[in-house]
């Protein structure tokens, strides 16, 4: 059974950093692309960043230069380093495989105070 467990969220001030982690199990992690998404009460779940099996990364424009996605295939874990956080980055962050599984983890809440 595949599990996605996000962690690392918290409350920070604008300009500070957080590192999110997504621990996966039951999935052939290394063979797939993986991505981070986020959702707020006002928005649908939106794409944030993705990383290919070869380590190439892509970002939505609003986080380019501030966020960095990485993966540790030995640990079946996906990461998102978030620097210079802004209030508009506040959301619940989720990870998923590409193509997405038809379920999501519980997410991890990121709150950013101005």
Your description of this structure?
Helices cover 0% and strands 52% of the residues. The protein is mainly β and 114 residues long. A hairpin with a 5-residue loop joins strand 5 and strand 6 (57-59).
Helices and strands in order, then pairings?
Blueprint: E1 3-7, E2 10-13, E3 18-25, E4 33-39, E5 46-51, E6 57-59, E7 67-72, E8 77-82, E9 91-98, E10 108-113
SS field, number of helical segments: 0
Low-confidence stretches are: none
Measured as a percent range, the helix fraction is under 10%
Query: In whole angstroms, how far apart are the ends?
Result: 40 Å
- Give me the secondary-structure category: mainly beta
The coarse silhouette is globular
In short:
This protein is mostly beta strands.
Quickly list its features.
single chain, 114 residues, mainly beta, 4-stranded antiparallel β-sheet
């Amino acid at each position: 059974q595949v599990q996605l467990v996000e962690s690392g969220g918290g409350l920070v001030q604008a300009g500070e950093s957080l590192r999110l982690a997504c621990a996966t199990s039951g999935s052939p992690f290394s063979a797939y692309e993986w991505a981070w998404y986020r959702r707020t009460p006002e928005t649908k779940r939106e794409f944030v960043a993705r990383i290919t099996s070869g380590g190439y990364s892509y970002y939505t424009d609003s986080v380019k230069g501030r966020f960095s996605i990485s993966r540790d295939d030995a640990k079946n874990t996906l990461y998102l380093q978030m620097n210079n956080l802004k209030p508009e980055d506040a959301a619940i962050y989720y990870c998923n495989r590409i193509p997405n599984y038809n379920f999501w983890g519980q997410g991890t809440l990121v709150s950013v105070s101005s």
